[in-house]
Amino acid sequence: MITKSPHRSNTARSQKISWPLILLSALAFGAITSCSDPESGPTTPAKTPSAQDSKAGKGRWSKARSNRDAENLTDEQREEIEQLEALGYTDGVHEAPDLMGVTRHQSDKTSGQYNLFTSAHSATAQLIDMQGKVLHEWSYPFSKVWPDYPKQDQLSTFWRRNYLFENGDLLAIYEGLGIIKVDKDSNLLWASGIRAHHDMQVMPDGSIYILSREANMVPRVNKNKAVLEDFVTVLGSDGEVKKSISLLVAMEKSKYGKLWNKKTNWDGDLFHTNSIKVLDGKFAHKNPAFAEGNILVSMLLPSLVGILDPSQEKFIWVKRGPYKFQHDPRVLENGNVQIFDNQGAGKETSRVLEMDPETWKPVWEFTGSDSQPFYSETCGLAQRLLNGNTLITESDFGRAFEITSEGEMVWEFYNPFRAGDEDQYIATMMEMYRLPDGFPLDWL
Question: pTM of the predicted model, to two decimals?
């Protein structure tokens, strides 16, 4: 077990500029399937595709289309759409510490046994135990799914989010590029060119809720420049698009439009929606907005958390709070809402907030300090565990750690993978997810 103190440097990679900081022109992959074009969605099944297979179209996997090819666009507008389609994340931003793997483990105070771990160094996910031992690995390079895609547009092709099925199959989102499903042996089952990003949730009926986006011209928002529009998109278990709802339209139809000033969008990225959670209705008796089937989302750029009613296709509950550029709101078992607050606590300090949904005030928080630094300028997740502990993914610094409700750290893990031309950066940790007790692993 390594006991060295972590070395924290704010030295960023040469690609790092200013916030949105890690948004780079890296992922130009065509636009998402729009709500009016379900035919450009995915198809199934698929074996490992060859360059010739990638042109096969329906029956195997989908090719993405791009609004940059629309008629009546100026060359400048086409370039703007291409740049918006290229928003992505770098694979590492901070100097690598001397720490790797599990550096702290108080087994009598932790919750659970296994973790699903996703890192920005490659399109790979690992199942690890609490000692950091790798029990299984999935991997599928982007270039094998879409081998003919231009190399210059493949600068950031790691997996942003994964979902593990009980039989060992895995869903994986290539951030802003597409989504695939592989089996336990990393054989490709299907692939979709829809521009999936950030987050997803799999429902009991097999439906897959994702965030997707489309760069296009929306004159009512900006007559001259392209914008990036987010959608909640529902896929079938086979990856076929079933429905898409524009979050822009949902905001415009709601009474909360005044909370979002469309004149202050960030270079065309309107919301930068980064989280999606389908509500189970357990607390609808306290607030009808929390009814079963409604969707909790986080909109980073306006620092808003909202609930979408998919039947009305509009927001019915939207809150601004003490958080800034937040991620990962989720309803806890006690009915409160937990939020990863990236920048609301002040300079270079992040925190996890537990909000009372009625008063929308914090009832619990964990905040970084000089003695226990905790900061992720971008990304980040917080998972409440069965025993009341919280597992936190501090993405930018490549670290995950588990704390008790009193703030005691009982487990800590540093990303063993490196990034940069000389491996000088610790790879961004996209997610550390603790599997629930009793999760079937007989497929190992």
Answer: 0.83
